[in-house]
Amino acid sequence: MSLGQQLAPHLPFLRRYGRALTGSQSHGDKYVRATLEAIVAAPDEFPKDVDPRLGLYRMFQAIWSSANYDEMGDEGVGDTDGHAAVARARMSRMTPLSRQALLLTAMEGFTPEDAAYLIDVDANEVEELVAAALAEIEGQTRARVLIIEDEPIIAMDIETIVRDLGHDVTGVAVTRDEAVALAMEERPGLVLADIQLADDSSGIDAVKDILAEFEVPVIFITAFPERLLTGERPEPTFLITKPFQRSTVKAAISQALFFDQTTVPGA
């Protein structure tokens, strides 16, 4: 099996990580493309002594760390307007390395040992970085959250997680029309949306309707993440895979709010 064939199944999830890390589909996908270009240009430099997925993320981390790509988001990409300034404001309180450690372990499911390899630190330091990131999350601005989910058990689970994090829930919608109505009635500061809803309507369409009225960060929830991580069309920046862990939801919410301009004092 060629290296390309080995890496292909992992690309959608690398896009998820890149988008969550940068707060932008376009920005995150550019880092993924740059990673693939680096692998094609120098295949002999791809790590041979580790699992292909681990090697892929290691190459991505090298690109992310490179100063040559620090200004990748300043090329006129529409959905990154204002994100750089917001990120810098947040980074003054949470270091990029701590966010990487949290996302790699909580969202991407790497062990502390694997995460240590990826960001080139000791395993014990990964635990300290994650703890620091979680401490910063506790100090984040609280948000009012709209949940769009048609499965009652999952909706209750999400609502419990959201409230335990200190956020308020403005409502739980099970259809597109109900979601839009709730959003208009009580404007949320964050939306958590399932893709497929009870009446065969779409959570994506519900979010489009809401975004046509006002800007709000959105996290999508789906059992089929590969369908929304192709990099070939406008796709979600933040994505949670069903079944999900509490830590995954927590990390996703923290990142969505991290890049939301309305949660930065003075923004």
Task: Please characterize this protein's 3D structure.
The modification 4-aspartylphosphate is found at residue 194. This protein is of the alpha/beta class and 267 residues long. It has two domains: 3-137, PhyR, sigma-like (SL) domain (Butyryl-CoA Dehydrogenase, subunit A, domain 3); 141-263, Rossmann fold (3-Layer(aba) Sandwich). The chain has helices at 3-7, 11-22, 25-41, 52-65, 83-91, 96-107, 112-119, 123-138, 152-164, 176-185, 203-211, 246-258; strands at residues 144-148, 168-173, 190-194, 218-222, 238-241. It has a five-stranded parallel sheet, with helices on both faces. Helix 4 (52-65) crosses helix 7 (112-119), helix 6 packs antiparallel against helix 7 (112-119) and helix 10 packs parallel to helix 11.
Any descriptors?
about 270 residues, alpha/beta, Butyryl-CoA Dehydrogenase, subunit A, domain 3, Rossmann fold, five-stranded parallel β-sheet, disordered C terminus, Sig_resp-reg_PhyR, phosphoprotein
What can be said about this structure in brief?
Residues 144-257 form the Response regulatory domain. The chain is α/β, with parallel strands linked by helices and 267 residues long.
Overall radius of gyration = 18 Å
Provide the residue-averaged pLDDT: 86
User: How would you sum up the major sheet?
Assistant: 5 strands, parallel
Under CATH, the topology of the largest domain is which?
A: Butyryl-CoA Dehydrogenase, subunit A, domain 3
- Label the overall shape: globular
List the domain count as a whole number.
2
The CATH superfamily of the largest domain is PhyR, sigma-like (SL) domain
Instruction: Write down the CATH class of the largest domain.
Output: Mainly Alpha
In angstroms, what separates the terminal alpha carbons? Answer: 50 Å
Which sequence of SSEs, written as H and E, runs from N to C?
HHHHHHHHEHEHEHEEH
Tell me the strand order in the biggest sheet.
Answer: 2-1-3-4-5
The CATH architecture category of the largest domain equals Up-down Bundle
- By DSSP (H or I, 4+ residues per run), the number of helices equals 12
Q: Flag low-confidence runs.
A: 71-81, 90-95, 262-267
* Proportion of residues in extended strands: 5-15%
